[in-house]
């Protein structure tokens, strides 16, 4: 009698177990959507940063293409006054929404080599990597040297461009980038170089370049084709140093 009950319970439980297994497989297939649920090599930080950068670049290109379509349609309809159109073109060059070409410099910044990091385990890790203030120092020096246009990682720098560190990457226009960092400027090469040489911050950075082999390289460029800024120009908020922040319906920001 006891044997009969055990067999009956097993026969009743087997279909239930199979049903649960089927539900689990179906749930996994739905969540996976045809992809592998197992972790892959792309889950590393570097892989995630590169994937996000590619995705953002694709969206920026789509935004730029749609903006060009709108401008073409407006031009065809003749909705823009010729005088206003000329002013718009001049302003777009100043803002950075127009491609430019010319001679200039490219400054490349790199973290310390891996072997140097291994040979200096007691050294503060922050001394062995490039930070946002290093990039900002180069950009500020190039502006001070009379640069007509600047790009970072081949992305145009405008008045609202922000540079900040997030982990071991630098975020530019909301997109993370890993080193090496390339800052390119169009302008008088001698004046640009002199501005870099006169920068006290860059002079201090050179100490780390010598001691820990941080990468700092300046290259003369006879001709640079710099793309236009393709992101949004919407400004969320801005404050003027020394003044209390007050709500405003049309916030403004100062230039560089």
TrEMBL record:
Keywords: Signal. Residues 1-32 form the signal peptide. Gene3D superfamilies: Protein of unknown function DUF881 (3.30.70.1880). GO terms for cellular component: plasma membrane. InterPro entries: DUF881 (IPR010273). The keyword Signal applies. The keyword RNA-binding does not apply. Belongs to the UPF0749 family. This is DUF881 domain-containing protein. It comes from Kribbella turkmenica. The lineage of its organism: Bacteria, Bacillati, Actinomycetota, Actinomycetes, Propionibacteriales.
